[in-house]
Amino acid sequence: MKVSILITTYNLENYIASTLDSVLRQKTSHQVEILVGDDGSTDKTRDIVYQYIAKHPDNIKLYTMPREEGVVYNRVERSSANRINLLKHASGDYASFLDGDDFYTDDSRIETMVDILEAEANKDCIMCAHNLYMYYENTYDKAEDCPPLCRAKKEHKWELKDYWPAIFIQANALLFRNVFKKKQYLEKLTSDKAYSRNFDDNNITYFLFAFGNMYYLPTCMGAYRQVENSSWNGIDELKKHCSNMLGLNMEMNYGREMAKNVKDAERILDYSYARHLENMEYIYEHKDELTADRCSPFYQTAVDSNLLMASALYDYKNTGDHAMNTLPYFIKRGRKALSRFKAKRGLSKLLKKY
Questions:
Q1: Can you tell me the distance from the alpha carbon of 41 to that of 12, in angstroms, rounded to the nearest whole number?
Q2: Which residue, 289, 275, 272, 298, is CA-closest to 324?
Q3: Buried-most residue among 103, 244, 260, 303 (CB within 10 A)?
Q4: CATH number for the domain running over 2-225
Q5: Average pLDDT of 82-92?
Q6: 218 to each of 148, 151, 153, 186, how far by Cα in Å?
Q7: Domain boundaries of the chain, sorted by first residue
Q8: Beta-carbon neighbour count of residue 18 at 10 Å?
Q9: Alpha-carbon 11 to chain mean position
């Protein structure tokens, strides 16, 4: 078997070496290719990658996305394009994304996950996921001392309708069957403007659930580094919530398409509202600040993608905006779904199923 590790970077000169080292340390019987996608870094990130390529010319390749000086980019849109570009070049039977400031902590990570997905009993699973350490490097000396991202303690399979309300798995924790080697699936992703511009974290997991279930491992096999000056942490709160609302748009557009029946569809959508309840409440509370300039560049992404709730990013006072007027309805559904979810999770914990 061949595994493609797809690493995305942007100005990560202080971290990229530890990321690459963690992949190169993997003890596996499978062939591993490392594809690095750089989003036009202006520091020494690419120089460091080239040093690794010189030592491992058969294993590592670098693909660079140029940037225009003075242009303000949507970080989600850029990282999505970076990931999709790497998928186009990935030749592995399995693939895994890895941010350039994160790293693996378990040297058997690849071997373990491939073995699980290769098992006959798990042919219904499109992906395998493990837990991650929430690595606050200014607080903890090493990743293994950090708390886990996910609280679910049971190893088992998740269907979308059960996974969605229960846990969050960061995309770096996934190893998935590379369905994108098939032209029709890659085209399905790239031809959809809305999805291809928002292929990030939750949306990656959501997209993969269309092809099967998730096999979950509660063991932490990697570190999810929390960097204070990261591109995400540098965005103000309103922009963060607007960006996350684009994710809700994806879920609203595809939830019904992916559900097995109408009942499941409504349940999945309710849990999407619960997941994004904080985003909806914040945006509604700050609706007077919702102008195109204030929400740039996420506003333009929403408009260009013709998203269902894109008009929530307009100045509602000037447009008589329908989406903003209906947002309280979605907030109400989200609150009800969150209450049901908490009750369900409490019962699962009591029965030791979670």
A1: 8
A2: 289
A3: 103
A4: 3.90.550.10
A5: 97
A6: 9, 8, 5, 30
A7: 2-225, 237-350
A8: 16
A9: 20
